[in-house]
């Protein structure tokens, strides 16, 4: 019987999280789901549109699901193209997951939040956990509301919802889905292809980021931590590293000296400018032992090594 259900498993994070959970618990124990059919399906897979609560409930019952990772969302940059639609999808899918879980005995939920919850009111350096939240995007507004709903379901119904405010996630395994930090994945692909990279942010726009391996490990460590250690029931600040486009380009140039970057900022520059530059994650460190392993240099080495391997296999 499978026990974990990943909703939105076909995306940047879900692709890698599915594999990590299957490595731990076994293929049959982890049900992958997305609103669309996915390629290369192994292990249990179900099509679920998370705006449909009945469909979530059907799958939860079928596999006797004990924990749900609710990754489905419209991300920051894409969300701005349709603000009210983004609010509807992001909130409706969360409410469905919370209600279906409460009504069907699902024991634990993972709900990802984001650094997009922060806005102009915060101190952008080492942004504290308990900052005033005035997000600048509809995505950020939905995540800030979602964090409070997570806490509400814990306090009111005892539902064990756990959450992380991910920074921009960078990995070689999958492509990003329309966020403001996507450039930091695309830049490595361009470097491997030997192409010039045109960046949609200005050269000195520093943002908090995290390597995929650290982001997935944080997720699993949070979910495995004893319940009494989880003292923040909105969402934990999480940090990996911070850098600007200019700095990531320099780290790539240590391996590819001829690599070139140009800057053509678009509407995403304004979103990025409203976000923190670095994050204080001391509560995550204190409560459940979080500790990132990758910095910019080690991430660049690992990204390039793995992307080269991937590209050579594809040839
Ligand atoms: P993504 O866009 O790559 O993947 C999201 C997946 O959800 C897609 O496969 C999409 O098909 C699916 N989906 C969309 N609407 C759906 C619906 N109604 N029902 C079912 N599936 C649906 O996103 P990601 O980067 O993997 O992010 C996963 C989660 O982590 C999101 O909640 C996102 O807000 C959060 N997050 C991501 C980052 C990042 O840098 N990637 C940073 C902060 C927070």
What is this structure, in a nutshell?
This protein is α/β, with parallel strands linked by helices and 315 residues long. The protein is 43% helix and 16% strand. α5 links the parallel β5 and β6.
Number of strands: 12
Structural class: alpha/beta
Portion in helices:
40-55%
Strand order of the largest sheet: 3-2-1-4-5-6-10
CATH superfamily of the largest domain: NAD(P)-binding Rossmann-like Domain
Instruction: Tell me, rounded to a whole number, the average pLDDT.
Output: 97
Instruction: Please provide the ordered H/E string of secondary-structure elements.
Output: EHEEHEHHEHEEHEEHEEHEHHH
Indicate the CATH architecture of the largest domain: 3-Layer(aba) Sandwich
CATH topology of the largest domain: Rossmann fold
Task: Tell me the domain tally.
Answer: 2
Number of helices: 11
Hetero compounds: nicotinamide-adenine-dinucleotide
């Amino acid at each position: 019987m499978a026990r974990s259900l990943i909703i939105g498993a076909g995306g940047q994070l879900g692709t890698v999280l599915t594999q990590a959970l299957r490595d731990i618990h076994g293929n049959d124990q982890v049900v992958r789901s997305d609103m669309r059919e996915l390629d290369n399906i192994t292990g249990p897979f179900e099509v679920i549109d998370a705006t449909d609560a009945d469909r979530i409930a059907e799958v939860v019952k079928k596999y006797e699901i004990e924990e749900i990772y609710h990754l489905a969302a419209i991300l920051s940059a894409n969300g701005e193209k349709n603000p009210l639609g983004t609010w509807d999808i992001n909130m409706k899918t969360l409410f469905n997951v919370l209600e279906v879980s409460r009504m069907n005995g699902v024991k634990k939920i993972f709900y990802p939040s984001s650094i997009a919850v922060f806005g102009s009111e915060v101190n952008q350096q080492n942004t504290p956990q308990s900052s005033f939240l005035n997000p600048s995007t509809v995505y950020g507004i939905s995540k800030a509301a979602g964090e409070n709903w997570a806490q509400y379901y814990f306090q009111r119904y005892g539902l064990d919802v756990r959450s992380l405010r991910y920074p921009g996630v960078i990995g070689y395994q999958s492509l990003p889905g329309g966020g403001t930090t996507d450039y930091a994945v695309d830049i490595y692909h361009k470097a491997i292809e030997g192409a010039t990279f045109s960046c949609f942010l200005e050269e000195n726009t520093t943002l908090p980021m995290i390597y995929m391996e650290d982001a997935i490990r944080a997720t699993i460590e949070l979910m495995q931590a004893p319940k009494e250690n989880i003292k923040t029931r909105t969402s934990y600040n999480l940090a990996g590293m911070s850098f600007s486009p200019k700095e990531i380009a320099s780290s790539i140039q240590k391996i590819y000296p001829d690599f070139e970057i140009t800057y053509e900022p678009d509407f995403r520059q304004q979103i990025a400018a409203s976000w923190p530059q670095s994050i204080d994650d001391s509560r995550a460190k204190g409560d459940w032992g979080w500790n990132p392993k990758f910095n910019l240099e080690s991430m660049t080495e690992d990204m390039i090594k793995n992307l080269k391997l991937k590209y050579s296999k594809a040839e």
